[in-house]
UniProtKB/TrEMBL annotation:
<keyword id="KW-0411">Iron-sulfur</keyword>
<feature type="binding site">
    <location>
        <position position="403"/>
    </location>
    <ligand>
        <name>Mg(2+)</name>
    </ligand>
</feature>
<keyword id="KW-0315">Glutamine amidotransferase</keyword>
<comment type="similarity">
    <text>In the C-terminal section; belongs to the purine/pyrimidine phosphoribosyltransferase family.</text>
</comment>
<feature type="binding site">
    <location>
        <position position="336"/>
    </location>
    <ligand>
        <name>Mg(2+)</name>
    </ligand>
</feature>
<keyword id="KW-0479">Metal-binding</keyword>
<dbReference type="InterPro" id="IPR005854">
    <property type="entry name" value="PurF"/>
</dbReference>
<feature type="active site" description="Nucleophile">
    <location>
        <position position="30"/>
    </location>
</feature>
<dbReference type="InterPro" id="IPR000836">
    <property type="entry name" value="PRTase_dom"/>
</dbReference>
<dbReference type="InterPro" id="IPR029057">
    <property type="entry name" value="PRTase-like"/>
</dbReference>
<comment type="pathway">
    <text>Purine metabolism; IMP biosynthesis via de novo pathway; N(1)-(5-phospho-D-ribosyl)glycinamide from 5-phospho-alpha-D-ribose 1-diphosphate: step 1/2.</text>
</comment>
<keyword id="KW-0408">Iron</keyword>
<dbReference type="GO" id="GO:0009113">
    <property type="term" value="P:purine nucleobase biosynthetic process"/>
</dbReference>
<dbReference type="GO" id="GO:0051536">
    <property type="term" value="F:iron-sulfur cluster binding"/>
</dbReference>
<dbReference type="InterPro" id="IPR029055">
    <property type="entry name" value="Ntn_hydrolases_N"/>
</dbReference>
<keyword id="KW-0808">Transferase</keyword>
<keyword id="KW-0460">Magnesium</keyword>
Amino acid sequence: TTMSASNDLDDGVHLNTLDDMEPERYNEKCGVFGVYNVLKASHTCYYGMVGLQHRGQEGGGMVSAERSETGPNKFHLHRGMGLVTDVFTPADIEALPGDAAVGHTRYSTAGGKTQLEGYQPFSVRYRQGNLALAHNGNLSNFAELRAFFEQHGVLLQSTVDSELFLHLISHSKRRSQLDQIFDAMTQAEGAFSVIVLTDNCMVGVRDPNGFRPLCIGRLPGRGVGGTDGYCLASETCALDLCKAVYVRDVEPGELIVIDENTVRSGTFSTLRLPQKFGVSQCVFEYVYFARPDSIVFGEYVTKVRREHGRQLAREHPVPRVADGELPPVVFPVPDSAAHATIGFIEENVRLGFPCQADMGFFRNPYVGRSFIAPNQENRDIKVRCKFNPMQHVCKDRVVVLLDDSIVRGTTAKQLINLVYAAGAKEVHFRVASPPVTNPCFYGMDFPSREELFANQHQHDQSSMASWLGVKSIGYLSPEGLIDSTVKGSANGDKYGFCQACFTGRYPVPFASEAIEDAAKTPLPENIFNKR
């Protein structure tokens, strides 16, 4: 339901605990979108959230800011479970008045829990006024911060790390609200792209490592009195849907302020968070998660993925066939592997390895991503509902099936079985990223080391191929991934990339207890940086 966001923060202590809530740890990979100085902001925010639906399909929420000349501003909140189009009816959107709004699409990576208290944006009123916050990422010092607040008597509403930003802001001893927000962000470690909406401005923050993307858009003439409006988004595909002009990315470690001065002058006020661990943007955004029509980390995702495919062809080309036989037919697992497959085919042909491009699967567009179904049982049935092989493409052919990554292996094995059932005489598997061997603590859905496919086979590719039922398997090497990412991106050599899920080298330290708990297996001493 839509409601006024009336949870009060009295100098840091607020809200009631939920005594019946089971302990859980949410690691969220989400989409965030915010608009400022835009007429009927909730309408624009809604479409921005639809554009970010791929980043979270389990639920969503929005807070709008209704300005008042005579009394305190009102923040209105609506959130719910399901797709954006299910969460918001036209009446819900109309009940979110104001010229500023912030939205969030949610993707939980731990459990399949459905408590709305963990859904964002979080919205409160404290001594400095209203505050709404949406966060994409995962805090590495979550346990440390949570313990601090619990020891000081703060009652936490949820087990979501994003809530701690509100307490950090509220407990700050700085005088101005902007300084309090800055102070809070300097105390957070890990992955966070955050949008904060206040009574007077919209703030966008990207962690100093730059793990998660965040970009700035301008909405020409869409503001009050024909002025320009502004928006912040996880990806530029959301800007495109709202007809916003892409301005630039929020830089790693940058705090950007969009306020009335921005509306008047077109300029942004910025602050810089202290740099502790270097820049390490998540390379998996390019590999899988970002939408291919987006610009992420300053480059089109499609361009980088094609370069991944070219490098994969150089490392693991298609197999040779006997004279007189048809060349191997190559097709992707739809849809995220499509552009890597184009690069793979182009480079194979250039290198003198004949192959034929085709589309071997029909993808049912009405079934969500198997990767972000809440549990494994749901994933299994959804693969069969989602993909149907083209028999005329597969029958009596040597097939090279290409995917962007293998995490658990469930989808890959089922797809390979479908290709054989469609009449393929031989199947080879190519992967446009290295083996995933380590859990992610920066917001991706790799909760346990023991359930990762490569670890189940002790990194033995012959064992992997045998289990999958393929003649050969070929992964892009870690070095090849980074080289091709840098080559495919105009800004690739400006910043570094995190590939901890492939290498085990975590750029931001975690307490050993957190890693042991998530991995459930003993760790080598060099798997993480100790404090």
